[in-house]
Design goal:
The protein is α+β, with helices and mostly antiparallel strands. The chain contains twelve helices and 18 strands. A hairpin with a 5-residue loop joins strand 14 and strand 15.
Amino acid sequence: MPSAREILPTDADRATLIGRVLDPGVGPCVVLVEGADAVDITDLAPVVSALLERDDLPEVIATARRDSAARRRWPVAGLLDGSGPALLAPIDLQVIKAAGVTFARSLLERVVEEWARGDATQAAAIRDRLGATIDLSTIEPGSAEAGRLKTLLVGEGRWSQYLEVGIGADPEIFTKAPVLSSVGCGQSIGVLSRSVWNNPEPEAVLVVRSDGTAVGATLGNDVNLRDFEGRSALLLAMAKDNNASCAVGPFVRLFDESFDLDDVRGMDITLTVTGADGFVLTGASSMKEISRDPVELIRHACGDHHQYPDGFVLFTGTVFTPTQDRSVEGGGFTHAVGDVVRIASPRLGALVNTVEHAETAPRWELGIWALVSNLRARGLL
């Protein structure tokens, strides 16, 4: 289990951190981090999505801080030891959206998957061939230059659906997982047992109100089955959405005078995978390399064309796609049961999860109606 110090931002004393705690005897609770404790503020807003919609949100947070000594609290360290109350994903009724193919380097890997038809043993040769012939790092999506490249590649029979969303006018925006299905820090993440080529995807996740305003950020693991998506993009739902396949957390850091969207734009995110077999994989993803600004991604997800009354979160994509061989030469990286995945950024803390098969990970059983019924029974609705 990670430590409390490990999962909190380095400047936690300046941060406004919102999360959720599952109290087994009570139910899900909305919390505000104060010092080393998670303070219960469920009486001020029964769900995180409603809290973030409040026009008086700064005043609500200030009130909670003033009377925090009188509120129920849990030490953050105690929420990670598996003995009782535990951290949940810090979001609830928000729709979980994701933007794909938003970095040039990961774009090439999507093309590799497609051309390899999900066969990891073919990836290295295709990667070398693509890298020698296509340079996408300087192309602005939707630009005239991107249009000329598309015309050239179509003429050569080398155009790809991933190139279309990577450098075309419209990005890939998809629903990553159902409402309430994401797991939090310290919980298991799930990978289908049938998958033989898969990886974590460390990402910055924007937290957006119903009016399209980004109000905070957190970390996410957009677990991906490369073999399934490589066989066909129509298998995207099976590649992305399985039991416990979406991790978010540890907390939502609200935008304020200490942290804003520009901090997200300049953020570096690190990844470490430590296997029970002694295997270690490290990597990093820098938001500085993103090909579309976060505000542009939000506009494509939300507007007159699509509304989210309870808000949404948006995975912004990753530059990191592991190619390091694990057990078979030329076979690339894939997860093993027991892998500990740590995704971290100094201003957001660390999201730590352990890999299990999706079929045997704890079942998702607290749905929308169960949550509403619980809140009603507690007199919060």
